[in-house]
Design brief:
The chain is α+β, with helices and mostly antiparallel strands and 255 residues long. The protein has helices at residues 42-50, 53-65, 92-95, 107-112, 116-119, 142-167, 204-216, 225-234, 238-247; strands at 2-4, 7-9, 11-16, 23-26, 32-37, 78-81, 84-87, 89-90, 124-127, 130-133, 174-178, 185-187, 192-196. The two termini are 23 Å apart.
Length: 255
């Protein structure tokens, strides 16, 4: 536990062979996650965490001021998609049947007296330009929508990564799209790059920054001053992207 102004914060301590430094994150549910690098110690980790009291207090205030995200996604719920908050809507395809003569449909629809979407009976939803099939229009739409977004990410993120790799004459052996809970991406010594599928929810310039960030690790496998110079060469506005991520810290937390 960490104590912040008399409030006890539960802490999950995890070790990571990939972590290069101590990291403290506060999740949307109020749990703090303390990461220990391979060469670190638990004692040093707690000392690091205890020094973050002011930061934790600011994060708690931020969480308290944020609107509560709905855990269940329904028609009308707003979610981030390509950096914009977009409302889930019924698709025009779903409403097609409502304009047809009622004798074409089963009795429950005749008795409903409303359009299919208003009855909660539809087989697809719209998120921007994306039409997404759903199994149960009256249930939680989140699993179907997230599966669709993960599919988009699996198509778009590797191709974008290889495009940048070619431009900057780098060799990425493989690009994997995963569901990391606490990081946007990673790069191994073998040239294996992992990207979080939720990059599909961020603005394109943030997505590109994360991809370029990981690619630059093929030149500098660290976060030294030289590494950041490499990042700035290929992504001059990377600070703007980092600021966006800081202003939207809960995007990974509500997985």
């Amino acid at each position: 536990m960490l104590s912040v102004n008399g409030r006890e914060i539960p802490v999950a301590v995890v070790r990571s062979r990939r972590a290069r430094r101590y990291v403290l994150r506060l999740r949307a549910d109020g749990l703090a996650r303390l990461t220990i690098p391979r060469s670190g110690s638990e004692r040093e980790a707690w000392e690091f965490a205890l020094r973050q009291g002011a930061w934790l207090e600011r994060q708690l205030q931020y969480l308290a001021s944020r609107p509560v995200r709905p855990t269940k996604w329904q028609v009308g719920t707003e979610i981030l998609f390509r950096g914009e908050r977009i409302k889930i809507e019924t698709s025009s395809h779903s409403n097609f049947a409502a304009d047809q003569p009622s004798d074409l449909f089963d009795l429950p629809l005749i008795n409903c007296g409303m359009r299919n979407a208003e009855c909660g009976i539809f087989d697809s939803v719209r998120l921007g330009r994306e039409i997404i099939p759903v199994a149960d229009g009256a249930g939680d739409l989140r699993p179907a929508i997230e599966a669709h977004l993960r599919g988009l990410a699996a198509k778009e993120l590797p191709s974008r990564t290889f495009e940048f790799a070619a431009i900057h004459r780098l060799s990425a052996r493989r690009v994997m799209v995963r569901a990391q809970r606490s990081r946007w991406g990673s790069c191994s010594f073998k040239g294996l790059i992992s990207l979080n599928w939720r990059l599909i929810q961020t603005p394109p310039f943030v997505r590109d920054y994360i991809i370029l960030h990981e690619l630059m690790h093929l030149r500098q496998m660290n976060h030294s001053a030289q590494f950041w110079r490499e990042v700035e060469k290929v992504c001059p506005d990377y600070r703007t992207a980092k600021s966006w991520l800081k202003e939207n810290p809960g995007l990974l937390d509500h997985l």
